[in-house]
Design a protein that fits this description.
elongated, 148 residues, 38% helix, alpha+beta
Length: 148
């Protein structure tokens, strides 16, 4: 006969094994904007992963503004829509778009750490470029039509 504590340990072991299996599928660049080890919670008897935002000034909403929940009992348990929406609030659309073009999650995390240390917060130079393109800059002044 299983006691409550042994049943809880068995359930926790299953949850940890499931989390490790799911983590192998977490290859989207959006995961770089969150802590790599999400919390496992049970809310209203529903299991969920709680992803913690890594933005220094998180702009999330709700009771736990830095946490994004992903419930595991839904059809879209692997969807990144809510993570992407939160990351756009905290980091901005242009940074999310640049991260989508980066090589992998590790290079994005490295770029985010570098960008947080720079004075101007420029994140464009922080990500590694894909392809053979060379970074070019234009120093001439914009024309009247270009400024409108």
């Amino acid at each position: 006969m299983l006691t409550d504590s042994s049943k809880l340990r068995k359930d926790l072991h299953v949850v940890i094994r499931d989390k490790e299996q799911l983590a192998q599928d977490w290859t989207s660049p959006i995961y770089a904007f969150f802590n790599p080890h999400p919390l496992i919670e049970v809310i209203n008897s529903r299991r969920c992963h709680e992803f913690v935002c890594t933005a220094p000034q998180c702009k999330g909403k709700g009771a736990k503004p830095q946490i994004v929940c992903r419930f595991l009992d839904t059809m879209d348990a692997k969807s990144t829509g809510n993570l992407r929406k939160h990351a756009k609030l905290c980091w901005g659309t242009d940074i999310i778009d640049k991260a989508d073009d980066a090589k992998d999650i590790a290079s994005i995390r490295k770029g985010l750490a570098t960008a947080q240390k720079t004075r101007d917060g420029s994140i464009t130079a922080s990500f590694e470029r894909i392809g053979k393109g060379k970074v070019t800059y234009m120093t001439r002044q914009h024309t009247y039509k270009e400024t409108r």
